[in-house]
Amino acid sequence: GQQLNQSPQSMFIQEGEDVSMNCTSSSIFNTWLWYKQDPGEGPVLLIALYKAGELTSNGRLTAQFGITRKDSFLNISASIPSDVGIYFCASPPRIFGTGTRLKVLA
Amino acid sequence: DAGVTQSPTHLIKTRGQQVTLRCSPKSGHDTVSWYQQALGQGPQFIFQYYEEEERQRGNFPDRFSGHQFPNYSSELNVNALLLGDSALYLCASSFVGGVYNEQFFGPGTRLTVL
Questions:
Q1: What pLDDT score does B102 carry?
Q2: Which residue, B85, B87, B90, B79, is CA-closest to B32?
Q3: Residue B86 burial (CB < 10 Å; 0-12/13-18/19+)?
Q4: Residue B51 phi/psi, 5° resolution?
Q5: Which residues of B touch A48 (CB under 8 A)?
Q6: Are B3 and B26 in contact (CB under 8 A)?
Q7: Distances A49 to A6, A79, A93 between C-alpha atoms, Å
Q8: What is the pLDDT of residue A40?
Q9: Taking CB atoms and an 8 Å cut-off, how many pairs form between chains A and B?
Q10: Using one digit for the tens of pLDDT, what is the confidence trace for A31-51?
């Protein structure tokens, strides 16, 4: 079935570093959403992508929708401690990625 | 503008019991989707309601059922609870008439089955 694979599964970074994570699929999707989830809470929508090749920013976050519509990346610049959490890519409503767990070392 | 709300926050049940979880969508939204999220996993799609009908369903047994009311709020019912049903249950709302399928999530209900 359709699924979204995220990499890396987890990462430790130093505060101030830039972060990059990927989401790939064997199927074509028309919408890619990126969410951040803190422990015990619901996911929060960060960025939405709708067009192949689209590059969208939201503050320190930048995401791109791959040309083939089978992948996307999310970059976080100058990471801060509150960036800690799990980042999910999704093509709603059915498909969620496996998540990338980010830990920031102060 | 109220976001998606869910109740209760936490719930403890025993095996074999039944549970009802509730969700109120974000103002202006008419579609509600429910997800089950086990610890350390991504959300798994249960079903989606629009115009008071189940429109899409994930790979969940019939023990999982739902309802949507005329005011767009929704309930998730789980019968004959199993230990494996312990999870965070998330509700997400969206506007089907919008151009884009953006979903907004509630804080979730933590269900523990003993």
A1: 83
A2: B90
A3: middle
A4: 50, 45
A5: 100, 102
A6: yes
A7: 16, 22, 14
A8: 84
A9: 61
A10: 899 999 998 889 999 999 999
